[in-house]
Design goal:
GO molecular function: RNA binding; tRNA pseudouridine(65) synthase activity
Function: Responsible for synthesis of pseudouridine from uracil-65 in transfer RNAs.
CATH architecture: 2-Layer Sandwich
Keywords: Isomerase, tRNA processing
Catalytic activity: uridine(65) in tRNA = pseudouridine(65) in tRNA
Number of helices: 5
CATH class: Alpha Beta
Enzyme class: isomerase
Structural class: alpha+beta
């Protein structure tokens, strides 16, 4: 009997919130047709075999809070709230370099279609906005590029829009790519962390989701600490 990979964070009559581990797809994707395990099916198991409706998505390598509705009406209401920007998300990331203490990244992004057959076609460019705050910095006595030491930051990210790979692309845009990002990061730094900590995961985690409950109207705050593979890396920051 397989073990359910999701940790349940919250449940009521209308909602189910879980912690998704890094490496697990939320649902079937044309990019990963060979995959057979998805957060959606594990959430359905937690829901007694009944259908659940994902309210948002997390990239496969991103871990953290994932919210499902337990009925279509609740899914519709929360979907509208997401579109209206009424859902607040917080992420934690380890990035290359010493990021500024605070900042706003206002940088439009071109759509990235999942279907490879569409990638040769012209895609629309959409507004994308991310706020961030630096929590800690460190300087390691290792030479990875041309300097005798290597600098890193721990940052909180607050996306105000929901574009595909927004946080990863935005941090690359300001020259502080997220460690472990194979597509938008720096290979030498990714390899160093993979070798040092024994795994090469993306160091991005969804740690908090705030919504107005679609039925009670009360503010609901869903939190989850980063999984152990992420917390192991935080030992490089003395003040954390």
């Amino acid at each position: 009997m397989r073990t359910n990979l999701l940790e349940e964070l919250y449940r009521d009559q209308w909602l189910l919130a879980v912690h998704k581990p890094s490496g697990l797809l939320v649902h079937r994707s044309p990019i990963d047709k060979h995959e057979t395990e998805f957060a959606l099916q594990y959430a359905r198991e937690l829901n007694g075999g009944q259908h659940v409706y994902p309210i948002h998505r997390l990239d496969r390598p991103t871990s953290g809070v994932l919210l499902f509705a337990r009925d279509p009406d609740t899914a519709r209401i929360l979907g509208q709230a997401m579109m209206a920007g009424e859902v607040s998300k917080t992420y934690l990331a380890v990035v290359r370099g010493w990021a500024p203490e605070t900042g706003v990244i206002d940088h439009p992004l071109k759509d990235e279609p999942e279907d490879r057959r569409l990638k040769g076609q012209e895609q629309p460019i959409r507004e994308a906005l991310t706020h961030y705050r630096r929590l800690a910095t460190t300087e390691l006595p290792v030479e990875i590029e041309r300097y005798p030491t290597s600098r890193y930051s721990l940052v909180e990210l607050y996306p105000k829009t929901g574009r595909k790979h927004q946080l990863r692309r935005h941090m690359k845009h300001i020259h502080h790519p997220i460690i472990g990002d194979a597509n938008h990061g720096r290979g030498r730094h990714n390899r160093y962390f993979a070798e040092r900590f024994g795994q090469g995961r993306l160091l991005l985690a969804a740690t908090e989701l705030r919504i107005q409950h679609p039925v009670t109207g009360e503010e609901l705050i869903l939190k989850a600490p980063p999984e152990q593979s992420f917390q192991d890396v935080l030992t490089i920051f003395p003040e954390v």
